[in-house]
Amino acid sequence: xxxxxxxxxxxxxxxxxxxxxxxxxxxxxxxxxxxxxxxxxxxxxxxxxxxxxxxxxxxxxxxxxxxxxxxxxxxxxxxxxxxxxxxxxxxxxxxxxxxxxxxxxxxxxxxxxxxxxxxxxxxxxxxxxxxxxxxxxxxxxxxxxxxxxxxxxxxxxxxxxxxxxxxxxxxxxxxxxxxxxxxxxxxxxxxxxxxxxxx
Length: 199
Description:
Layout: H1 2-10, H2 16-27, H3 33-40, H4 46-59, H5 64-71, H6 80-97, H7 103-110, H8 115-124, H9 138-146, H10 154-170, H11 172-179, H12 187-196
């Protein structure tokens, strides 16, 4: 365990080494992985907190407490890298559960007051229309994402615009149809629109 953590702290960038360490920990069936993740979340070093988030993501489909911890405590973490890992964790939850079956949780997270919770969904599921269910229902993806075009959080609006731009590569008419309904006199919406159009 200590050696794993030392190795993680040696590498400043990336996710793969953290995920590999997480898989090693998860392979130990005698370990209480939820308790370990909760303990690691308190670590001052962001890579260790990223490891905690990875563990919680792997547990989330079968452990409601893990999913709840991601939605609450992890979403409050100030480090952007931890938030990137949160997005990956949420996508893992949806992939294991099934994207269509995950729609109630997707909608719940997208209705959260914390922009980090909403961003975890929008960023985590990119490219939305390469995911099962949304591949066949691009209009659902566009509608869910577009609700947040005028959010107060620029961090979130960047994800909204980029996610719509991704979808627009395969479904340009659908994205343009959505954008045509937007009030571009609103500066926040205009900001998102430019990103969605790749400007």
